[in-house]
Amino acid sequence: MTQDTSSILIVDDEKEMRQLLQDILEEDHYRVVGASDGQEALAHMESEKFPVVVTDLRMKGLDGLGLLEQVIQKHPESNLIMMTAFGTVESAVEAMKQGAFDYLTKPVKADELLVTVQKALREALLRQEVQQLRQQVSREYAFDQILGKSKPMREIFDLIRRVADSQTNILITGESGTGKELVAKALHFNSQRKSKPFVPVNCAAIPELLLESELFGHVRGAFTDAKSDKHGLFEEAHDGTLFLDEISEMPMMLQAKLLRAVQEREIRRVGSTKSTSVNVRLVVATNVTLAEEVKAKRFREDLYYRLNVIEIRLPPLRERKEDIPLLTHGLLQKSLTAQQKHIDGIADSALARLIDYQWPGNVRELENILERAATLTQGPIISLEDLPPNIQNIQGEGQFIEDAVEQILPLGQVEKAYIRRVLEKLGGNKYQTAHVLGIDRKTLYRKLAEMEDGTSKE
Ligand SMILES: Nc1ncnc2c1ncn2[C@@H]1O[C@H](COP(=O)(O)OP(=O)(O)OP(=O)(O)O)[C@@H](O)[C@H]1O
Ligand SMILES: [Mg+2]
After folding, report:
1. Does the Cβ of 174 fall within 6 Å of ligand 1?
2. How confident is the model at residue 307 (pLDDT cuts 50, 70, 90)?
3. Average model confidence (pLDDT) for the chain?
4. CB of 202 closer than 6 angstroms to any ligand 1 atom
């Protein structure tokens, strides 16, 4: 505890009393500031933080209870200790009810004062620390609704922060359920366009023939069903963000029209000869590799380069397993809130299985499984039995550790076997293996080389 954070404010209208308390506390190396009534105390609190305030109850001007009320409102991080005259227990009780940290009866004994102040100080500092940690956690482990603490996710948070406000088009790639739409929203809501529309369009969900008029609008009589003029989603997203999901599903003919809209920043409604200029930030997403679509001539190369100015690549969940506990707790909480249910959490054995599983459906699959478990569970916590059979029965690292313990293998041997197994599981991909194991590639190569040396000597 530094002297700086341990300033104590003493409030009493009797000068001798104030001096006495000040001497006792200064003797114990606290920094002390005195005030002669509530008003003066509040003025001090405006310019300096006091984790602990010791105040007399009865004072001229703003009295102890009045000060307490103000402190709770304006400086909730401070703990207030109320001094009451001997024989007035009721007022002490009243102060406690109103939120005082503790009370002391006059005449105040030195040791009592020191113990109480120390307790109040420790509690205030602890609370301050918890609050700072909490802020830090929400800054580092989440971005808007996106949870993640793994290195790739933290890099994505940084990237979102950096590019949200630029006008460039953004391509978001990643397997199904990795959070592409969440990222698109985060981009929009962290940009200056946030008060303007965010318009999501799933290119795969709209029939090919309708997509053009959905995106660009049409004029009356453009086709049989066009009974009146209609603006398209581009115009709806004016000044905002247009999110084109599953962009690879857009027909070639429309890709040409999209390219024109992107390049010239204007669109033409179906059946119209007039162009309308639009100011739209384009964010597109895909779960296929667009470069391969380009090679296969299913996606226009020029459009690909226009869209792929900045790529945000969301790694599959199995490549960032350290996010699973955080996601599990966060998503479980979300589901419980929605179901208005209370559960204490998840058993370690169940969480271990979730960490072990390969998650082909990524975060969406995890979310669904937790929702199902939260609905089904009858216990105070989610247990192994509440998970679907395919996840309950996988024999993964958990079993592997059990076996190792059974044979009491030396650590080095377990490490070797583990590295070999992970490498096998990831199809021999050393880059991914190093990544999943949380070591750099050089270290992995060194360990693999050692293993080969070891086996040749054995
Ligand atoms: N990092 C994350 N933190 C919290 N929730 C997440 C995260 N990633 C995904 N989710 C949740 O998982 C679900 C799927 O996410 P989203 O719809 O963004 O995925 P997607 O990549 O667009 O999938 P698809 O390709 O299938 O459309 C959503 O309910 C989303 O809220
Ligand atoms: Mg999506």
Report:
1. yes
2. very high
3. 89
4. no
Residue 213 tokens read as 């008029």
CA–CA dist 391, 376 (Å, integer): 15
**Residues facing residue 311 across a β-bridge:** 171
Alpha-carbon dihedral 256, 262, 266, 267, rounded to 10 degrees: 40
Look at residue 458 in the predicted model and tell me its pLDDT.
35
Calculate mean pLDDT across residues 288-303.
93
Distance 312 CA to ligand 2 centre (A): 14
Asked if residue 140 has pLDDT above 70, the reply is no
Cβ(414)–Cβ(404) under 8 Å? Answer: yes
Protein residues near ligand 2, an ion, with CB under 5 A: 181
Query: Among the three residues 113, 137, 161, which one is the final residue of a domain in this structure?
Result: 137
Residue with tokens 């929605």: 338
pTM for the full model? 0.61
Q: Residue 218 forms beta bridges with which residues?
A: 230, 270
Q: Ligand 1 in contact with 315 (CB < 6 A)? A: no
**Would you say residue 106 lies in a domain?**
yes
Ligand 1 atom at shortest distance from the alpha carbon of 366: 12
Asked if 325 and 351 count as a contact pair (C-beta separation under 8 A), the reply is yes
**117 and 32 Cβ atoms separated by less than 8 Å:** no
147 lines ligand 1 (CB under 6 A): yes
Is the preceding omega at residue 107 within 30 degrees of 0, hence cis? yes
CATH number of the domain that residue 251 is part of: 3.40.50.300
Q: Do 236 and 154 share a structural domain?
A: yes
> Of 392, 424, 442, at which residue does a domain stop?
392
352/288 same-domain check: no
Q: How many Å lie between the centroid of ligand 1 and the Cα of residue 176?
A: 8
Counting ligands in written order, the one closest to the CA of 152 is: 1
CATH code of residue 440? 1.10.10.60
Q: What is the mean pLDDT of residues 177-196?
A: 93
Range of the domain at 347: 331-392
Write out the DSSP string of 390-448. Answer: HHHT---HHHHHHHHHHHT--HHHHHHHHHHHHHHHTTT-HHHHHHHHTS-HHHHHHHH
Q: Is 182 in the pocket of ligand 1 (CB under 6 A)?
A: yes
